[in-house]
Amino acid sequence: MVRSVFKKATEEWRKDTCIDFYESYTAPNKIRVFMEDGCWSYVGRTGGEVQDLSLGQGCESVGTAAHELGHALGLYHTQSRYDRDQFITVNVANIKPDWVSQFTKQTTFTNDNYGITYDPGSIMHYGAMRFEF
Question: DSSP per residue over 93-128, as a string?
Fold first, then answer.
């Protein structure tokens, strides 16, 4: 199931970008997909040749896999853009404490938007009521 979902997520990225994916055990740089607790990937390469991406129980949707793949490719959450306050209001008091870090604003140094307009419908943007009390 996870293999199929991840493959569909790569197809979503492939059809809308210039990024291509292929399965390889010998490529020098790769994304290792596995089933651990939760849905996660570090943002961008963390050093070494392997970028880990977990699609544990409850992470079986193509949207979730595409979102985590975005992190593996180096994308932060859209709601973490340094210019987000011009477009949305984040009420930290309504966010569960364990999830506040998912809304931390990046700086212009850590998150260059390359002139791309803020997109609240981005696969990298959480929904309005995500992680609320």
Answer: GGB-GGGGGGGPPP-TTT---TTPPP-TTSTTS--T
Residues with a catalytic annotation lie at 68
Nearest to 102 by CA among 131, 72, 82: 131
* Token reading at 65: 């896999």
Which residues in the chain belong to E strands, given as ranges? 30-34, 39-41, 50-55
* pLDDT the model gives residue 57: 94
3-state secondary structure of 9: helix
Check whether 125 is labelled as a binding-site residue.
no
pLDDT (tens digit per residue) in 55-73: 999 999 999 999 999 999 9
